[in-house]
Every structure is written in C-alpha cells, then in structure tokens.
Amino acid sequence: MIALALAGCSTQETERQLSAAAATLHSVQVDAAAQRSAPKDLQRAAETLQRAERFADYWGGAADARHYAYLSQRYSEIARQQGMLLRHQEQVVRLEMERDRLRGMLQDARLMTTEQQGRWLEDQMMSLAASETDRGLVMTLGDVLFRAGSAELGNTANRTLLKLAHFLQLNPQRKVRIEGYSDSSGDAQENLMLSQARAQAVADLLVDLGIEPARVEPRGYGDRFPIAENASAHGRAQNRRVEILFSDAEGGFAPER
Fold first, then answer.
1. What is the 3-state secondary structure (H, E, C) of 96-120?
2. 119 Cβ neighbours under 8 A, 6+ residues apart
3. pTM of the entire structure?
4. 118 with 165, same domain?
5. Gap between the Cα atoms of 54 and 47, Å rounded
6. CATH classification of the domain holding 177
7. Whether residue 117 sits in one domain with residue 44
8. Among 246, 106, 250, 101, which residue's Cα sits nearest to residue 177?
9. Are 183 and 236 in contact (CB under 8 A)?
10. 45 with 119, same domain?
11. Domain count, the chain
C-alpha cells in the first residue's frame, strides 16, 4: 500500500511538472520577440518536453520525465529573457530615433526669422495650454501621456515637450520646475517613486532636446496635493499628472510646496 501511495504521489508530481513546462513553453511560443531572438532555445524547450512526455509513458520513467520537464522550462525561460532583452533594445532604438527627429525639428525651427519666431512663440504659448495660478504659470501633462503604470513617455508627450523645449530656447532666462503627482491607490512609497520617475523622464527629455540641466528642476510629490477626489476613476486620473511650473522672466519661482 505504501509503495502504491508513493507511486501515486510521484505520478501526480510528474504530471504537475509536465503541465507547468507545457504552459511555460506555450506562453513563450506566442511571444514574437522570443521567437525572433531565441529560436534554438524554443526548439530545445519543445524537444525536451516531448522527451519528458515519452518518459512519463514508461513504467519507472517518472524521474527522467521530471528531469526533462525541468530542462524544458529552463530553455523556455531563457527564450523569454532573450525576448525581453530584444524588446528593450528595440525600445531604446525607437526612443533614440524619435529624439533625433525632435532634435531635427528644433534645428529647423532655429532657422526661422525673428518675425516668424515671434508668431511661432505666440502660437506655442496658446498650444501649451498653460494656466495662470497662484504659484505662477502651470502646464499640466495628463496621465495618458505616459504608458500605464510606468514613467515611459508616449509619442504624444514628445510632441508636447518639443513645443516646451522650443519655448525655453526662445526664452533663455526662464526655468521650469517639473512636479510629478500620483493618486492615492496602492503603496504610498511606490506612488512617490513613480511620481519622481515621471518628473525625471520629462526633465531628461528636455535636456536631450538641448535645454541646460540647470534650467530644469524635477520633483516628485506622490499622492500629496490632489486636485480631485480619489474616490472615482475620473478623479484618480486627474490626480495622476505632471505639472510644469514656469519661472518668471528672471528665472524666479514661487516657494516650493
């Protein structure tokens, strides 16, 4: 009876490991980046899983089946990691190409005549949609300009920040304080870190576009200073924002919060 019980436990564990290996392999096989970056590892994962399944059909082959199931999972995980690395590399290339394009547009704008620049500046101030507040002129970047739950800027934000960068180039005495905010959902420390990362991402892009680092001050406030109730999804979305506070013409700011 004991031997039968042990055999039953062994069979269940073998089936569990085979199922886990098959599920892992399937999840990676549908990953286009993993297919492109690690085809050999995916092939090894499939072959070792087939071998594990064959051993599982043999009496006394459970140990070998579990061994090859383990190897299959490892090959699948290697392929997954290679896919993640490829996606990251491609993302870096895309961001660099976008920033090169933005730099080119700024270079073209610098060739405008003084009259053209004056009209352009007036248009840009209107399109920046900055509002006068008791702290000075403030421009708000909404949560939709960032990828969900991350500090990565989307292309729409890049176009907006291109206008801001050109405004700062035409107004060299002005500075900006970039303030990141979150809603109150989740862990407060993580919210603070995300708000700081988003403010820093905006600052980094402005610097990449030629604005001197000394003119850009990133800050993160987490869920402090909400502008709407956190009880609704709409209110939380309003609170997840980046505010850009403009200095006066001499570079002075209102006191920090």
1. HHHHHHHHHHHHHHHCCCHHHHHHH
2. none
3. 0.55
4. yes
5. 11
6. 3.30.1330.60
7. no
8. 246
9. yes
10. no
11. 2
On whether both 39 and 85 belong to a single domain, the answer is yes
Adjacent-strand bridge partners of 177: 217, 245
The vertex-132 CA angle with 158 and 185, nearest 5°, equals: 60
pLDDT tens sequence for the chain (257 residues): 434 333 455 678 889 999 999 999 999 999 988 889 889 999 999 999 999 899 888 887 888 889 999 999 999 999 999 989 888 888 777 777 777 776 776 666 565 555 555 555 555 554 556 777 888 888 888 776 777 678 888 777 777 888 888 888 878 888 999 999 999 988 999 999 999 999 999 999 999 888 999 999 999 999 999 999 988 988 888 899 999 999 888 888 888 87
- CA proximity to 246, closest of 159, 133, 166: 133
Residue 160 lies in domain: 112-246
C-alpha Rg value of the chain to the nearest Å: 27
For residues 226 and 183, membership in a common domain is answered with yes
Task: Say which residue the tokens 């303030």 belong to.
Answer: 179
The answer on 138 and 86 residing in a single domain is: no
